[in-house]
UniProtKB/TrEMBL annotation:
<dbReference type="InterPro" id="IPR026816">
    <property type="entry name" value="Flavodoxin_dom"/>
</dbReference>
<comment type="function">
    <text>Ferredoxins are iron-sulfur proteins that transfer electrons in a wide variety of metabolic reactions.</text>
</comment>
<keyword id="KW-0479">Metal-binding</keyword>
<dbReference type="InterPro" id="IPR050157">
    <property type="entry name" value="PSI_iron-sulfur_center"/>
</dbReference>
<dbReference type="Pfam" id="PF12724">
    <property type="entry name" value="Flavodoxin_5"/>
</dbReference>
<dbReference type="InterPro" id="IPR029039">
    <property type="entry name" value="Flavoprotein-like_sf"/>
</dbReference>
<dbReference type="InterPro" id="IPR017896">
    <property type="entry name" value="4Fe4S_Fe-S-bd"/>
</dbReference>
<dbReference type="InterPro" id="IPR008254">
    <property type="entry name" value="Flavodoxin/NO_synth"/>
</dbReference>
<feature type="domain" description="Flavodoxin-like">
    <location>
        <begin position="3"/>
        <end position="141"/>
    </location>
</feature>
<protein>
    <recommendedName>
        <fullName>Ferredoxin</fullName>
    </recommendedName>
</protein>
<feature type="domain" description="4Fe-4S ferredoxin-type">
    <location>
        <begin position="220"/>
        <end position="245"/>
    </location>
</feature>
<dbReference type="InterPro" id="IPR017900">
    <property type="entry name" value="4Fe4S_Fe_S_CS"/>
</dbReference>
<dbReference type="Pfam" id="PF12838">
    <property type="entry name" value="Fer4_7"/>
</dbReference>
<keyword id="KW-0411">Iron-sulfur</keyword>
<dbReference type="InterPro" id="IPR047964">
    <property type="entry name" value="EFR1-like"/>
</dbReference>
<keyword id="KW-0408">Iron</keyword>
<keyword id="KW-0004">4Fe-4S</keyword>
């Protein structure tokens, strides 16, 4: 059996989970091919029809999937009853994103078999929440790994696992998410590169929106930022600040799950 795993991951959490899910499938002689939504121009979406099942992974921004994922869903071909696993990663226990994606792709004719919200570290802790400790990160990753194994075992055994979010919560999240998208340009102005920048260009090369340029020896952020925070966590000098705050590198190890250029 062959599965296509389509994901977006800003700072590595969603890709880390993708790797775990893929590893567990491989242990059971299933093959998983990754499709990074960020590069969707590089792959033909119709190719997904060739796979036996589909997995979609997303981070959660203001309760929902980011626009890069919503746009991908719009272009996804019809499902013809193809089995699907939908997962989100977020800082809290649960969010509406997975439910929202399930509803969208159900309408396209996919059969959502697993729908799961997986708690990971909150990479936006400096704006909402509190700084995760190392112990918290370790135990969160352990719990997430168990969840990945249960997802794969359940899928292989043919057991449906749907973590529902009620329609009221989904409605509230949709409103919040629309508000978030509106104020994104304002929020992203909080990101500034400081003098410590050594012009390595990692942020420029790896921004999923091509939103950063190097000008006069400093990273300059333009107006297309989606606030994925990859640049902040990738910067080896910790030179990118948010509201003048230096960010504690909670994604230091996890971000290695991404294919960094
Ligand atoms: C702009 C932004 C908004 C976020 N909003 C939420 C949220 O509403 N609820 C939540 O639980 N986590 C939220 N988070 C935390 C992320 O969903 C979480 O850290 C996720 O696992 C990041 O995945 P990634 O590393 O694959 O990008 C937010 C993160 C960012 C950057």
């Amino acid at each position: 059996m062959n599965g296509a795993l389509c994901y977006f991951s800003g700072t590595g959490n969603t890709k880390w989970i993708a790797n775990k899910i893929s590893d567990y499938f491989k242990e059971n002689d299933y093959n998983i091919d990754f499709f990074n939504i960020e590069y969707k121009e590089d792959f033909d979406l119709e190719n997904i029809n060739k796979y036996d099942f589909l997995i979609i992974g997303t981070p959660v921004y203001a309760g929902m999937e980011p626009r890069i994922v919503s746009n991908f869903l719009k272009k996804l071909p019809k499902g013809n009853n193809k089995k699907c696993i939908i997962y989100s990663t977020q800082g809290s226990n649960k969010a509406s994103a997975a439910e929202n994606i399930s509803r969208i792709i159900n309408k396209k004719g996919y059969d959502v078999f697993i729908q799961s919200s997986i708690k990971m570290t909150n990479n936006y802790y400096f704006a909402m929440g509190k700084k995760p400790t190392n112990e918290y990160i370790t135990s969160t990753l352990k719990e997430a790994e168990v969840k990945c194994k249960n997802i794969v075992d359940g899928f292989i055994k043919g057991e449906k696992l749907i973590e529902n979010t009620n329609s009221f919560k989904l409605g509230v999240s949709k409103v919040l998410s629309k508000g978030f998208i509106k104020i994104l340009p304002k929020l992203s102005k909080n990101m500034i590169s400081k003098n410590d920048c050594d012009k390595c260009g990692l942020c420029v090369r790896n921004c999923p929106r091509g939103n950063i340029t190097m000008e006069n020896g400093r990273a300059v952020f333009h107006s297309k930022c989606m606030l994925c925070l990859r640049c902040i966590y990738l910067c080896p000098k910790n030179a990118i600040t948010y509201k003048n705050k230096k960010i504690y590198k909670i994604q230091k190890n996890i971000i290695k799950a991404l294919d960094i250029k």
